[in-house]
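Hi R.,

As promised on Friday, here is the backbone we talked about, encoded as structure tokens. Could you run it through your design pipeline when you get a chance and send me back a sequence?
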């Protein structure tokens, strides 16, 4: 079986023996928080388990700690999720959502990288690509997978949690994945203040995808990130967005493009503005 560490196409996933892959449906809708779970029951890739952005890939109880709208799950909770799903070392993991990986599939990809799992990929084009290929779907809950025992640790060197370091450019070059109007502060549909962290550059995550919903070619992505970042090394790049979710899409795109070693400012904009004394840039 080929090893997939960034993206996988629908045909390759369909050809992977079911016992060798853990498929995770991460479909989620910020406007309707139960829609993803309902849609999963209505139809999903055969054998896929469901993971909720709010309940499995985040710990919303920690929002008051200044960690943003989607704080990272505790290590123990993430290990429990992998155990319930039956993940075992060496198993290929494939995540997908209905937004080309942008909402939660890339978040799961990044969380697995954070605990040292490399054999994880996002389904290129998401669930729509699976359906477009005429591949089968499954309705309802799949047969339960045998549980496993998982005990992994976060590699905190891939994380930036210190807000203060960002004020003095000590953390690296911030790259904001939100749409340009939100970055500029023209609109802000989710957080109490619009704008961006002073010094942050903008690369909307949607720019990573071609018109068919699949990722652009690696060479094109390399050129486009270079236009934004100039001579900044990938290892000096720190990704952010509104709550640390879509930023993972930019991180995935850079890895796919061969630009390795960037990190995530997990609290992102919603964490930054949790302290009203922190500066806000507009425009």
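Update: got your reply. Pasting your designed sequence below so it's all in one thread:
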């Amino acid at each position: 079986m080929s090893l997939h560490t960034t993206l996988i196409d629908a045909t390759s996933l369909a050809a992977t023996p079911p016992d060798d892959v853990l498929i995770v449906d991460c479909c989620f809708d910020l406007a309707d928080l139960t829609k993803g779970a309902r849609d999963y029951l209505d139809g999903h890739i055969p054998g896929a388990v469901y993971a909720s952005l709010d309940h499995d890939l985040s710990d919303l109880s920690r929002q008051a700690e200044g960690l943003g709208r989607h704080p990272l799950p505790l290590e123990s909770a993430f290990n429990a999720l992998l155990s319930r799903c039956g993940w075992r070392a060496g198993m290929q993991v494939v995540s997908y959502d209905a937004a080309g990986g942008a909402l939660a599939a890339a978040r799961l990809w990044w969380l697995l990288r954070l605990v040292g799992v490399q054999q994880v990929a996002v389904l290129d084009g998401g669930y729509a690509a699976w359906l477009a290929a005429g591949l089968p779907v499954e309705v309802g809950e799949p047969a339960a997978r045998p549980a496993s025992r998982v005990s992994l640790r976060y590699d905190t060197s891939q994380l930036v949690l210190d807000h203060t370091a960002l004020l003095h450019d000590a953390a690296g070059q911030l790259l904001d994945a939100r749409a340009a109007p939100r970055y500029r502060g023209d609109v802000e549909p989710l957080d109490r203040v619009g704008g961006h962290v002073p010094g942050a550059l903008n690369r909307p995550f949607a720019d990573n995808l071609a018109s068919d919903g699949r990722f652009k070619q690696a060479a094109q992505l390399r050129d486009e990130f270079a236009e934004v970042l100039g001579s900044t090394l990938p290892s000096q790049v720190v990704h952010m967005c509104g709550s640390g979710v879509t930023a993972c899409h930019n991180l995935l795109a850079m890895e796919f493009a061969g630009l390795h070693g960037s990190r995530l400012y997990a609290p992102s904009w919603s964490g930054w503005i949790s302290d009203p004394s922190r500066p806000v840039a507009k425009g």
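One thing I noticed while checking it: The beta strands are 7-8, 21-25, 49-50, 92-96, 120-123, 159-160, 173-176, 201-202, 237-240, 263-265.

Thanks again,
M.
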